[in-house]
Design the sequence.
């Protein structure tokens, strides 16, 4: 019997996170010319979260950690044949850092729609 191979039953049955690290390559964008956070990418999107969709339901550190682990396994330079593996791997780690650090995350969320604040603190792009 060969069932469909695209059903994501790798995790335990109680695992509600249907995130697929393998297919996740859309990293969104963010205004960060100085590369303070995740550069041109959105730290949330890197880990597969859609900032616009949480409203107040922000992902927990536990969920963030789980996504980070899945993605870093997928993009590990020793394991991935992808030409951007190393660069992606580094960004994934950075996104994890930003989103699990209370101060950085607060600032990141605040500056998302406030380029003025970004300029004041980090200056404009050269």
Sequence:
């Amino acid at each position: 019997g060969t069932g469909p191979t695209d059903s994501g039953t790798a995790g335990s049955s109680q695992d509600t996170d249907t995130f697929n690290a393998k297919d996740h390559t859309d990293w969104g964008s963010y205004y960060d010319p100085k590369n303070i956070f995740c550069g041109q990418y959105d730290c949330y999107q890197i880990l597969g979260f859609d900032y616009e969709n949480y409203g107040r339901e922000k992902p927990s550190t536990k969920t963030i950690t789980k996504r980070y682990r899945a993605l870093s396994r997928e993009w590990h330079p020793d394991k991935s044949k992808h030409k951007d593996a190393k660069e992606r791997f580094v960004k994934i780690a950075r996104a994890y850092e930003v989103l699990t650090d209370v101060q950085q995350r607060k600032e990141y969320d605040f500056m998302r729609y406030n380029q003025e604040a970004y300029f004041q603190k980090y200056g404009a792009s050269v």
Summary: DSSP finds six helices and no strands in the chain. Confidence is low (pLDDT under 50) at residues 3-14. Helices lie at 43-46, 51-54, 61-74, 85-100, 102-111, 115-122.
